[in-house]
């Protein structure tokens, strides 16, 4: 490949990238004429950025897991089991297989999926899986999410409601 061909390819790609970065700014009638107002509107819409962060951004709002009552209640309820996965941003908690010392051939695994941050009955889905293994190490995994998952959901919701009430009383004081 000749030197001139390489240079022309690089220049073509660069110019395409520059041109693709240009986009229509939109209707001028919908944009505020004042620069500070435009900046504020862009930040509110999530289109702006700051290099050092904004001092006014997210005052009093928490983005970490301990501020979510459902998350805390779920972890407290499942604290006796080893966790295989706890992903707050993905909204899921999955335990590892757990077996009581009395029953050697049966294990249980629980997954909690969060659908909302609000403390309500349809905010989470709890699934319970059982694994029965025979002596030959052939295992059968079944989804038995009926009674136990309902009990776990009630327990998590009760704890989450308690945490929410506790947080409200702290904010009032």
What does this structure look like?
The chain is α+β, with helices and mostly antiparallel strands and 173 residues long. It has 2 domains: 1-61, no CATH class; 65-172, Alpha-D-Glucose-1,6-Bisphosphate, Chain A, domain 4. The protein has helices at residues 3-21, 35-44, 69-77, 147-172; strands spanning 83-87, 92-95, 106-114, 124-133, 139-143. It has a 5-stranded antiparallel beta sheet, covered by helices on one side. Strand 1 and strand 2 (92-95) form a beta hairpin.
In short:
The chain has 173 residues and is α+β, with helices and mostly antiparallel strands. The protein contains four helices and five strands.
List the helices and strands and how they pair.
Blueprint: H1 3-21, H2 35-44, H3 69-77, E1 83-87, E2 92-95, E3 106-114, E4 124-133, E5 139-143, H4 147-172
Antiparallel strand pairs: 1-2, 2-3, 3-4, 4-5
Salient structural properties:
single chain, 173 residues, Alpha-D-Glucose-1,6-Bisphosphate, Chain A, domain 4, 4 helices, 5 strands, 37% helix, 19% strand
Radius of gyration: 26 Å
Secondary-structure content class: alpha+beta
Please report the first level of CATH classification, the CATH class of the largest domain: Alpha Beta
Strand proportion: 15-25%
Major sheet: 5 strands, antiparallel
* Whole-number tally of structural domains: 2
- Unreliable runs, pLDDT <50, ≥5 residues? 55-63
Q: Roughly how much helix do the residues carry, as a percent range?
A: 25-40%
């Amino acid at each position: 490949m000749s030197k001139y061909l390489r240079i022309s390819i690089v220049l073509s790609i660069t110019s395409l990238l520059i041109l693709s970065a240009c986009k229509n700014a939109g209707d001028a009638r919908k944009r505020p004429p004042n620069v500070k107002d435009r900046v504020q509107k862009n930040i509110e819409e999530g289109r702006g950025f700051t290099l050092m962060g904004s001092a006014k951004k997210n005052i009093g709002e928490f983005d970490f897991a301990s501020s979510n009552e459902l998350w805390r209640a779920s972890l407290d309820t499942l604290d006796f089991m080893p966790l295989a996965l706890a992903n707050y941003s993905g909204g899921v908690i999955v335990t590892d297989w757990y077996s009581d010392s009395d029953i050697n051939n049966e294990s249980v695994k629980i997954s909690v999926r969060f659908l909302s941050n609000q403390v309500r009955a349809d905010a989470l889905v709890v699934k319970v899986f059982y694994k029965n293994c025979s002596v030959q190490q052939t295992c059968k995994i079944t989804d038995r999410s009926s009674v136990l998952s309902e009990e776990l959901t009630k327990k998590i919701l009760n704890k989450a409601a308690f945490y929410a009430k506790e947080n409200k009383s702290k904010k009032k004081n």
